[in-house]
Design goal:
homodimer, about 250 residues, 9 helices, DNA-binding
DNA sequence: CGGTCCATTGAGCTTAGTCAAAGAGCGTGG
DNA sequence: CCACGCTCTTTGACTAAGCTCAATGGACCG
């Protein structure tokens, strides 16, 4: 459980991923703003591989403040499929849903900091359906999640390994950018090739070879946990990329 | 546009798929019941291949009364991925969401009858968050949808063709059963092998071969649009089946 | 009786998986 | 400071699941 203090300090700041994501969909009232700041003030820390939410247990209203997590499902014989990545600023599960059993487990891929978003949910649930501000932001984030699932299905069903990898990187690039975690076309990707393989439905060996090919083609570079986008237009072309409507 | 009258008559009945699905999650009040019956009273008919909702257009609040539809996405070079099947009783898209752009197109796979569910949505949106009855039913149906997407991702990412096919048939079996469309372990499957291929991320030829193998193994039989489940336990075993929590 | 759509079959090929082993990087303890 | 062990990456050789192409067969329909 490293950088307690760092996580805490960042979480209180203004340009924090959570705040950026929530504010992206529109302005918040003073009341809403302070509600969010209250939530930011009480972070929880969890180590790698920690199960943030067990499959079948009621879904907690939790936001990820920092670190990487995923929603995943493991088959009887051990095969694992990562359903989606959870990035800083994201809810662990679609948040506007009532407390229903989780459709899959949520697991920390790095040490993470989470926030209890129950107060936000409570506030949003009693707000009228067409209210702007916070309620609207949360709905937007859920909608975003739906897009990601669709993209994941198309990737897995109809793209070859090379396309899948490029498409996933573009997705992460876009999402991390929205969270303010990209600079100079470059971002941190703290994932092993095995994790990428489990997300893309590939073997580790093949992921390795595909990455080398992409590097040779000078589309992007991935070294020691850092990704640099080298040729965005061609990446978008290769992956048949459709921008995710953020608003 | 065949069987207009049939669709209409069924839609007004009590054991209709829509009514079964909505009533499954709990009892409705008299007001809610009549609201649903009003909706059932004005069906719309659409031919095969009709685009029920275009990608990017605001999602209509629509229920499928009869026939089969799907949500799909087509890549630039023509590759198609079916994201999910929409069966009688299902909403075309998660229904409790506000009118947001559709993440993919909805298309009729057979002639279909649809219902305008806007009155139900309006009613449910103004109901308190923890109200039972209709609002709860609609939320339940959305939650169900989320499970299906997860299952589709796991199928495509981590199962081989044989397993995928068996798993999909089990899913359809379960869902059609909930809609009252299964009898004697047998149901109608009005899909070409090409449609199955596009749902499972396989080629038509391979779908054909896998189906033959499954038939030879006496797990199930699929002939002229009818599927018969022959060995449910072994199918569940093969597909690593986890029952979808309906309640 | 042709035409159309769909299912089926065969042959050959490609993508991606498996198995096994060898580097590389990194933290820990001697 | 180095050696060991751990995890992760990389490479090679081989295998196999699944794809493409092409042709045939069947059913239905005007």
């Amino acid at each position: 459980m490293a950088n307690h203090s760092t996580g805490l300090r960042e979480a209180s700041g203004r340009g924090t991923p959570v705040m950026r994501r929530i504010a992206a969909a529109g302005d918040l009232t003073a009341v809403e703003l302070s509600l969010v700041e209250d939530v930011l003030a009480t972070p929880s820390h969890h180590p790698v591989r920690h199960v943030l939410a067990a499959e079948g247990k009621p879904v907690p209203a939790v936001l990820l403040a920092s670190g990487w997590a995923c929603r995943q499902r493991v088959l009887n014989d051990g095969r694992r499929q990562i359903v989606s990545f959870v990035l800083p600023g994201d809810p662990l599960f679609p948040i506007m849903r009532p407390a229903i059993p989780a459709s899959c487990a949520a697991v920390a891929l790095t040490p993470v900091v989470t926030l209890n978003a129950a107060p936000l949910l409570a506030y949003a649930q009693q707000a009228p359906a067409d209210a702007g501000g916070l309620a609207n932001s949360l709905r937007m984030m859920d909608r975003f999640d739906e897009f990601l699932l669709r993209d994941q299905i198309v990737r897995l069903g109809r793209q070859i390994a090379y396309e899948r990898m490029v498409h996933l990187i573009l997705e992460l690039f876009t999402r991390l950018d929205a969270a303010g975690l990209v600079s100079n076309n470059s971002f941190s990707l703290p994932l092993t090739q095995e994790i990428l393989a489990d997300a893309l439905g590939l073997s580790v060996v093949h992921v390795n070879r595909v990455l080398q090919q992409i590097r040779r083609d000078r589309l992007m570079d991935m070294r020691s946990g850092m990704v640099t986008i080298l040729n965005l237009p061609q990446m978008q072309q290769v992956a048949d990329w459709t921008p995710i409507p953020l608003a």
